[in-house]
Amino acid sequence: MQRTDEEERSATEFAADSDLDGWSGAADASGASPESSAGGSRLGRLFAPKAFLGVLLASFAAAVLGNGIPLVGLFGGLLGLLAVGFGVGLLSERRRYLEVGAAGALVSGLLLVASTMFSFFAPFAIDLVAQYGPAIAGAGAGAGLLASVLGHYLGRDLRDGLTREV
């Protein structure tokens, strides 16, 4: 049911108004396409390659340092990933869940496979990784993803609490 003071909108008007942040690639009034404007494309807002590279390097460094702690090993690496996620969440104005999660999963999966390769007798380790490598990498990636995203969530939550008006 439509009110009498509302006009019916044509399908073309609706399509023009529902252009979500440049998905159609149409140019705006200034002649610049939405992808080249300062806001960037929607994909650019979801995943920033430069931020991912920075988070990946920080995650790798923190996981290696955490794995080097005696008697803690793998859990130290996960704590390092949690700390990097926390720091990114605390310092970044934008949400970086995708970058932090992907970096944490990649670093943790690779380091778990590498630590498996070098922690056993070489012929046994090669056979173990050949048979169970994807499962080992998947378990490491899942743990790294959870630790990184949890740290990022906690950092964003603290940032929100610190910056909110009382």
Which helices and strands occur, and which strands form pairs?
Elements: H1 11-17, H2 42-46, H3 49-67, H4 74-91, H5 97-119, H6 122-163
Helix pairs in contact: 3-4, 3-5, 4-5, 4-6, 5-6
Our Rg estimate from Cα atoms comes to 23 Å
Number of domains: 2
- Report low-confidence residues grouped into runs of 5 or more: 9-38
- Number of β-strand runs: 0
Q: Tell me the major beta sheet.
A: none
| Helix and strand run | HHHHHH
Mean pLDDT: 80
Structural class: mainly alpha
Shape: elongated
Helix content: 55-70%
Number of helices: 6
Keywords: Membrane, Transmembrane, Transmembrane helix
Biased composition (Basic and acidic residues): 1-11
Biased composition (Low complexity): 15-39
Transmembrane segments: 46-65, 71-91, 103-126, 132-154
List the keywords.
mainly alpha, 166 residues, single chain
Concise description?
Residues 1-39 are annotated as: Disordered. The chain has helices at 11-17, 42-46, 49-67, 74-91, 97-119, 122-163.
Q: Your description of this structure?
A:
- With 166 residues, the chain is mainly alpha-helical.
- It has two domains: 1-46, no CATH class; 48-163, no CATH class.
- Helices cover 69% and strands 0% of the residues.
- The chain contains six helices and no strands.
- The chain has helices at residues 11-17, 42-46, 49-67, 74-91, 97-119, 122-163.
- α4 packs antiparallel against α5 and α4 (74-91) runs parallel beside α6.
- The chain is elongated and about 60 Å long.
- Mean pLDDT is 80; it is low at 9-38.
